[in-house]
Amino acid sequence: MKHQDGYLKSATNQNIYYQYWMPEEEPKAILLIVHGVAEHSGRYMNVVNHFVPSGYAVYGIDHIGHGKSDGKKGFVERFQDYTKPLKKYFDKIQGWHPQKPIFLIGHSLGGLISAAYLLEHQNEVSGAVLSGPGIKIPDNISKATILAGKILSAIMPKAGVIQLDAAGVSRDPAVVEAYIKDPLVYTGKITARLGAQMLKTMQHVTGNAAKIKLPIMIVQGSDDKLIDPTGAQLLFDLIGSKEKTIKVYDGFYHEVFNEPDHKKVLDDVKLWLESILDKE
Q1: Domain range spanning residue 159?
Q2: SS3 letters across 214-227
């Protein structure tokens, strides 16, 4: 397995970190990891170690304000600051591997970013796996709270409003401890602007999901504490793809790729990927 990394420049001239892991032989397909809020691309070693020995190349990018990339933690000016660097990186990967199938692996916020990306660029992508996608506004957030968040986003965009509970990441205490101690993980509050941009994008994705026609797999933990797990089924029902699959893992928390039984999830994803590749 070969590992390399580097930086690309965003439209606002900020450094965006990327890294990738290559098999020894020519890869049969590319997996592009789109990570979740407050974390980074280096937290997907279970995915890397499962797929690279099977002949896949795994690429990852740290979103603006995340990991080793520039930008204020927990903040984004506009949602396109996530999707535009992803497009630039995608084009780079396509240039390095012409004609190779590329699949997005989007987790949580990364699932939302991936869905928004597909609405613009699905003709270039072979398929997507969305893990615990942040699609649905939780039922316990009132319209008044949403309105207050929009106002705060306009007048105090960098004000911290939401604190993630690290204990909800995984049932594995070692994963939670590593998450808390990881210097590249942001453990502060998510800002009003990021929250408002996420809500706006959720509405955009759910309103247009029928336009997504490429193969999609959704994986979701039934006991997810960090996002509303019913959002996975909602997105599945709305997506216009004929080739779509959903797997809900009983008792699993938010990061299904980092759960004690993560191998079962990764085996299911691999079977699905192979079935799509066999049809190409």
Answers
A1: 2-279
A2: CCEEEEEECCCCCC
Give how many domains the chain has, as a whole number: 1
One-letter amino acid at 259 equals E
Of the pLDDT bands very low, low, confident and very high (cuts 50, 70, 90), residue 12 is confident
Q: How far is it, in rounded angstroms, from Cα 227 to Cα 112?
A: 12
* Whether the model pTM is above 0.70: yes
d(CA 171, CA 117): 30
Decide if 187 contacts 38 (C-beta within 8 A): yes
The active-site residue out of 50, 224, 241, 262 is 224
Selecting among 63, 107, 254, 262, the annotated active-site residue is 254
CA distance 273 to 261: 19
pLDDT tens for 193-212 read: 998 999 999 999 999 999 99
Share of the chain above pLDDT 70, in %: 97
The CATH number for 191's domain is 3.40.50.1820
CA-CA distance, 21 to 30, in Å (whole number)?
10
Least confident range from 4-8, 34-38, 153-157, 171-175: namely: 153-157
Catalytic residue among 108, 126, 170, 241: 108
108 is catalytic: yes
Contacts of 63 (CB under 8 A, 6+ apart): 16, 35, 69, 76, 82, 85, 109, 110, 113
